[in-house]
User: Fold this.
Amino acid sequence: MAALLVGVLAGCREDGPQDAADYGEALFQSSTLSSSEYNSFSCATCHATTAQAPAGRIDSGHTLYNVAARPDWWGGSETRLLDAVNVCYVNFMRGVTKLGPDEPRSRALYEYLSRISPDAQAPALPFTVVKDIQDVPRGDATRGEAVYRAACQNCHGATHTGEGRLTTFASVLPEVTRTYDEAFPGIPHAQVVIEKVRHGPFFGVGGTMPLYGKEALSDVDLGALLTYLGL
Assistant:
């Protein structure tokens, strides 16, 4: 239960005690939540905290507004909030061990997530994973460019150069597909990209890219993205 995380944490800083929720917000915004030297993600990389997702932004994860008031997460597969957090922490942020319920970071994160959850109850949000990867119809390149800017550019940077990318571990698109013949012999390049988008690291394609369910990225937008990338 999410209640396992309830507690008030007094952090320390030079100008006096720090409010637990404020400390949690700082953790939420920082990649240093995970101690891995290879992690560049923060919670804020993939999640907005407003009631409606900001315009021009397509996140892999739902907004976390009211997240602590939901009955379950990850499409119902997780029924404790801390377990839902640990899916991200271990699989995408390279956390070596899961966050424990009594850790100061866990308690602080809960306080912050509670602060952005004003309602007593909120509905669970759907998360539809595309189980069997299939090709998708190609779409409009102009729309695909908008999708790239909204969904991909924050991590991967500008196409062809990677300028502005979040980390050097984020591949340069679409140039990375030139390596696919060796890494994924016999598989069309577009199919590998679809696999990475739809399954993230979970089906042996490597990396730590968070997966995009259908609610986050439609097949129409994915097809437009592939056209823009020349795939």
